[in-house]
Design goal:
Helix content: 40-55%
Number of strands: 8
Strand content: 25-35%
Shape: elongated
Oligomer: single chain
Number of domains: 2
Structural class: alpha+beta
CATH topology of the largest domain: PH-domain like
Largest sheet: 5 strands, antiparallel
């Protein structure tokens, strides 16, 4: 999302980017428990299995609703990390920006002159359209500021 009037650019994760990893995690855990208990005296009943799947859906929706304000705002002078608490990183303090990959999902990492490494919540490549273009915007903003 762009805010051209104030000269700032904002990136936020989409609903699927937030909820899909949680849903897949719960689904995998449920499958492991189901398979593990299938050969015991007390396997999961259909009702218990449905409760686990319902829990996965509810947890995914909760993550989406509770984290929708998380993101990154790029201003002319600062990088603002928005989440539970806001952090401001001056572009002048940034030494390096890199694209990091964890389990095939690419994200942007910012290294400061104080030795800190901050991985940005957005943009990420998981179901993220135009990830490379968004990274180019972050790099361009940094280059113009220094």
């Amino acid at each position: 999302m762009n805010d051209r009037e104030s000269g700032s650019v904002s990136f936020r994760l989409g609903a699927f980017q937030l909820g899909l990893p949680v849903f897949c995690g719960f689904l995998t855990a449920t499958a492991v428990v189901y398979c593990g208990l299938a050969f015991t005296e007390q396997p999961l009943t259909r009702g218990e299995l449905m409760q686990c799947l319902s829990g996965a859906v509810v947890a995914s929706l909760a993550v989406v609703l509770l984290n929708r304000h998380y993101g990154v705002m790029l201003t002319e002078s600062d990088l603002l990390l928005q989440g539970d608490r806001r952090q401001r990183v001056s572009w002048a303090d940034v030494q390096r920006i890199e694209v990091a990959s964890i389990l095939g999902v690419r994200s942007v990492a910012v290294h400061t002159k104080y030795g800190h490494r901050k991985t940005l919540r957005a943009p990420i490549s998981l179901l993220g359209r135009k990830f490379d273009e968004k990274v180019a915007v972050v790099l361009d903003r940094w280059q113009r500021a220094i």
